[in-house]
């Protein structure tokens, strides 16, 4: 059957062999970050290959049973096959992501930033809810989070948060989460129990590999500020000015990092993220030029929401690009957003 060729198990095996040979080199652990990336990719591929081979065996076994049932009908065996069909369908949908995550930067780690819209405490609280949602999604999908900057709200929630999502295909999975997310609910901060609408924006940037980035940053184009880092809720974490903020004047990009106690390490992280953001701008400029050449509509409406989370008068989460819906809003806010991610990938959104 053509199933094996479609999902390319032979190339996966070759890649696994190559990664295992890298691990066996004596200098493998000299660069811990590179070593962890190789191990993560190896484990990811082994897990994919195991699931692929298990699924193939399961399908072939069911086909044999169906052939047998044609000759001699057995209602109990027929029921077993019927019960297995939904599980096989789900497994096929998951493996199908291998074909969908084929963008040039899909395999990269990504920077995820959350900013509340106008609305004060209400929007700050909504931004915090989204932060928890993405953290829970990362936990469920074995992605590591590296918190870079966290600015707590004055009364509740957060003014802004930025963190790196580490793990193979992090950008590919999350790239379509970029945009405005809207919440409709009875406000817990309103004594009159009125319904409020809140907005928060999500920005996703791939963290390009250093060898992919050819960006020159002049010293005269940036300002580097240092300040004392603060933790969640504003409590002091460091009494020395270890936190770093870099402002890039030509692009108006501002990058902050305060997760390390070392000012040098925070500066290095800021520069890496700034390079990725500037490179991302260049990539988007090229894409826009190509769209204009092709005569495509390049208008972007940053004010329109990509997804609405309704808590009142009914419960519903709806993605406005794919029309994907889920009435279990609590489950979605607990990180169950795979259906939204998969449907956007299938439609080629973003």
Structural features:
alpha+beta, Methane Monooxygenase Hydroxylase, Chain G, domain 1, Alpha-Beta Plaits, Double Stranded RNA Binding Domain, 3 domains, 45% helix, globular
Largest beta sheet, briefly? 8 strands, mixed
Q: Averaged pLDDT, please?
A: 85
Gross CATH architecture of the largest domain? 2-Layer Sandwich
Query: Count of helical segments?
Result: 10
- The rough form would be described as globular
Helix content: 40-55%
State which percent range the strand residues make up.
15-25%
The CATH class of the largest domain, by name, is Alpha Beta
* Poorly predicted regions: 1-6, 296-302
Q: How many strand segments? A: 11
CATH topology of the largest domain: Alpha-Beta Plaits
Overall domain count: 3
Elements, N to C (H/E):
HHHHHEHEEHEEEEEHEEEHH
| Rg, alpha carbons | 24 Å
Distance between termini?
A: 33 Å
| Computed structural class | alpha+beta
Order of strands across the biggest sheet? Answer: 2-3-1-5-4-9-10-11
